[in-house]
Write a structure and sequence with these properties.
The complex is a heterodimer of chains A (524) and B (304).
Chain A lengths: L12 E10 L2 E11 L4 E5 L6 H8 L7 E6 L2 E3 L4 H7 L1 E4 L11 H6 L8 H14 L15 H14 L4 E5 L7 H16 L3 E6 L2 H7 L2 E6 L2 E6 L6 H9 L17 E10 L9 E9 L3 E5 L6 H9 L10 E3 L2 E2 L5 H6 L2 E4 L14 H9 L4 H4 E2 L5 E2 L1 H15 L15 H13 L5 E5 L7 H16 L3 E5 L3 H7 L2 E6 L2 E2 L3 E2 L5 H8 L3 H12 L1
Parallel strand pairs in A: 3-8, 3-9, 6-7, 7-8, 13-20, 13-21, 16-19, 19-20
Antiparallel strand pairs in A: 1-2, 1-4, 4-5, 9-10, 11-12, 11-14, 14-15, 17-18, 21-22, 21-23
Helix pairs in contact in A: 4-5, 11-13, 13-14, 14-15
Chain B lengths: L1 H27 L7 H19 L2 H25 L4 H19 L25 H6 L3 H19 L1 H11 L1 H6 L4 H27 L11 H11 L4 H23 L6 H19 L3 H7 L13
Classes of the chains: A alpha/beta (524), B mainly alpha (304).
Amino acid sequence: MSEAQVPEAATLLKVRGLTKYFGSFAACNGIDLSIAPGEIHALLGENGAGKSTLVKMLFGVLQPSDGEIVWGGKPVTIQSPGHARTLGIGMVFQHFSLFEALTVAENIALSLDPKIPLTKIAEEAKNLSRAYGLPLDPNAHVADLSVGERQRIEIVRALLQNPKLIILDEPTSVLTPQEADRLFETLFKLKAEGRSVLYISHRLEEVQRICDRATVLRHGKVTGACDPRQETPGSLARMMVGSDVAGVERAADTPLGDVLVDVKNLAVPARTPFAITLSGISMQVRAGEILAIAGVAGNGQGELFDALSGEYPVADDDAIRLCGKPVGRKGINGRRLLGAGFVPEERHGHAAVSDMALSDNLLLSRSQSDRKTFLSGGLANVIRHDVIRSIAKRICGEMDVRKSGDNPAAGSLSGGNLQKFIIGRELDRKPQVLIVNQPTWGVDAGAASRIRQALVDLARAGSAVVVISQDLDEIFEVATSIAVISEGRMSRPYAASELTLEKIGLLMGGVHDSTSRREAVHAH
Amino acid sequence: MFEAILLTIVTAATPLVIAAVGELVTERAGVLNLGVEGMMIMGAVCAFAGSYLTGVPLLGVLCGILGGAAFSLLFGFLTLTLVANQVATGLALTLLGLGLSGQIGESFVGIPGVKLQPIVFPILSDIPFIGRLLFAQDITFYLSIALIIGVHWFLFKSRTGLKMRAIGDNHGSAHALGIHVVRTRYLAVMFGGACAGLAGAQLSLVYTPQWVENMAAGRGWIALALVVFASWRPWRVLAGGYIFGAVGILQLHAQALGIGVPSQFLSMLPYAVTIVVLIVISHNRRTTLINTPACLGKPFVPDR
């Protein structure tokens, strides 16, 4: 830890005892941190560890309850993001703070000196983006751009203000491995220019690869300050999580049964101008198999899930067969009645109604498929609250859902616990087919490993599972076979053992056409 | 005869255009103020009172503008500071405005008002046909045109306008960028109120120079429909305002000529046209999304 100390004179930013209370809850509690010029400094921690709160204070979005921020040797109170920018602090947010209805240049102009004319901003943005290897068209509407391009806008926007410190909040969570490599090159360029980077992440391998020093947060406190290259992923993870995370156990070989999910040449036209058109999607998933569908966000995963779950039925009834029956034109309940279960991506407002109790959320999703258990009185459809409550309780016990009170509102649970409940709600029915979109997105490591184990167990018990995920670690942990979706087209499924990270990266970048062609050549 | 009809169309369209362009600015900032009718009627009664008490109609116009703006401030306080539901507050504002204006104007009923005199441009007004139409109007007409040009320039050319559109599109991000969301929205709401007040002043000082209870007669609602009809673009507000105004006037002439169209049908036309336009423009989702303020009507509460 001693080598992590930097001499006072060479410090760009120093934070002492920074604390932020929300009510009586301390999101950040006495944080110490120092960043030297020309340093890439990692801020590590799980969801809810206080990383976002900390950087929001550094960027003037939130005001600290206590503690001191020293910038360039002088104590400062950062009143607003505008103030932070004049000091020389730039920020790239995790959830982009872009305006979809405006053009790239207009978006950038909003954070610059209002005296600079828009045409000049467009020109500068174009040049700068090219210089740093992040090409951008300044006159494009943001709504039409990909996630990677949107991130470039944020970075260029921050760079145009010539900052001394750039804060990046989980920048690679939305990028392909290749796009991430490009970002790292840009970061090294910045470092060579003497700028500092505060790099927030929970991806250990990235941090070890690019960061000079790391500060680890847990429950709002600093639990470690280290040189990440001196550490092992295991030791970093321990600092983050506080204990070792259980790995997922897999059966050596699960015998495969009948084909339960059979998709043939599924094509879905885009419903909105920002949606992706799906074309030529085919897959077969057998009982006992877990097919993971990898891909960068926004390549048609949502649309594919909507088609598979029946949220938006498709025109061709035969394009999707579940448990041997054509279901393309069936709605979600029709498919549930055949023994399928579905878990959508968004927890709040989609998988669960935040303001309603867990038991009510259970009733909402299973009112048709478990009609006989949940409702009584024949046509009167009287809700049997006691039965539903006891089943909700059983699910919470089964999945280790931690909650306050007996039957709290879904919105009061943490993301991980709510996700465990939502997955458990489907597993409780013992579905023959389970289709899940981003099962552990934004979920802490403990809950994520519990959820992954549950998916593996379900497959082992003889169900077919489809997991749509952006998290490659997760995919390799659970999948028996892997397909990659990009721009609405899906590669053929590969056995998990024949794929490497690099190959998936290429597929995610949309080069599966050429690969399959090359393979075809090899085959002949 | 034809020129006379056109003149009445201009007079009928002007309040619609003014009120709608004000509401357009409010909505571009992401605030849905359904109280246009109420602010308009308050503007009308304030303008009449100002003109009657001072004897100077121009001061009446000023009173109308201030009355509308002050009344909108109540809406701003409720929805922006107290974060009340915008739809409910807007509806309440209309009901309150109708009642309050009736109360204020009780003693003015039946008093003949002073008509706002036209400003005649010497040479231009002699141009045949369009001269009298465009260059011999009262100040509210000129203001309506200036407002369209000004608002268009403001929204799409000025940096403050860009900030306002940004707030309407995504107030969370705008706040994160250090733009004053609530302050800007207050100004946008008050601009909308001032415009509605000016439109009201036109009613009680130009259209029918007297005070009649409930004299806005649904024009505030037409103005609201007009904003959507125009898909939040100022020039389309001008075009739409004249189409809606013409429909209203032609309805009267049709009645006079004994053409057998029920008046109710024609009164309904602006709303029916708006529905048709909504159906047509929603086909092109992309342009709709780019023009529709995404945060319209959503409450904004900044992080602690």
